[in-house]
UniProtKB/TrEMBL annotation:
It comes from the Bacteria. This is ATPase BadF/BadG/BcrA/BcrD type. InterPro entries: ATPase_BadF, ATPase_NBD, Euk-type_GlcNAc_Kinase. Residues 6-254 form the ATPase BadF/BadG/BcrA/BcrD type domain. Pfam families: BcrAD_BadFG. Coiled coil: none annotated.
Amino acid sequence: MTQYFLGIDGGGSNCRARLRDAEGHLLGEGTSGSANIRLGLDLIWGHVLEATDQALAQAGLTREAFARTAIGLGLAGITTAEDAARTIAAGPRFAFASAGTDAHAAVLGAFSGRDGAILITGTGSAGYAWVKGKGHAVGGWGFEVSDDGSAAVLGREATRVALHAYDGLAPRSAFTDAVMAHFNDQPSQIVAWATTARPKDYGTLAPLILSHAQDGDAVAVALIEQAARDLGRYIRRLNELGAAQVCLVGGMAGVLTPWLAPWTRPLLATPEQDAIEGALLMAKGAGNGLSPVTSEVVS
């Protein structure tokens, strides 16, 4: 018999776990590192279990409880049912396991399982609508080719405009100077850094962009305005897919919302619950088997 429910929300920067009992009482929580499956299933399961162990310890439990625990995994990087299935297969066995994109967990939490859409803007970005029992993903294909309006893409663009300014191909400003100073005014250091930099590394430049944009630096403002326009395109598309309201969530949501176009305001809603609660709904079977990016395994 299932006695415990474990919700996992994993993104490009961190992984969060929450454990509840069958009556819904909070038993424990935990946090750890990145949980985007593109980083490797061994790595992300290490972080999932690290966060889970913290939650179990608070509840006075050990991994022995897995056999009586249903887990819902909302993880960045899952884009197909096959991704979800192999993610579940790579981890330990639970009484029940369901996996899907972090966007799926977020929309379930935001609207308590009802129809709606979310637009995640954090280290990465992704739009997701849950309408009439069907999931519709928009974007979220990785910062190299997608993830518009995210911290990682802002960081990537910051290095590009700084290098363009350094080469005299684009306007120089206090912002571009600050980016170059971050790399000791050496373009070669940017290249060396970019060779191994991950999305969260690019995302560390976002505060620098925002700070200079708030000071009115034209180059930084242009980057923020473009990010806001990109988010607007996602909001419009999610609405076209049938979502009457969209919740903007993630670490960049609060700072980018003021830059959105006025027409977006009537479509925006405040999340009712967070993505971990959405993952807990997945653990309880809500929305499973209907979304193209959700897989479930009963063991």
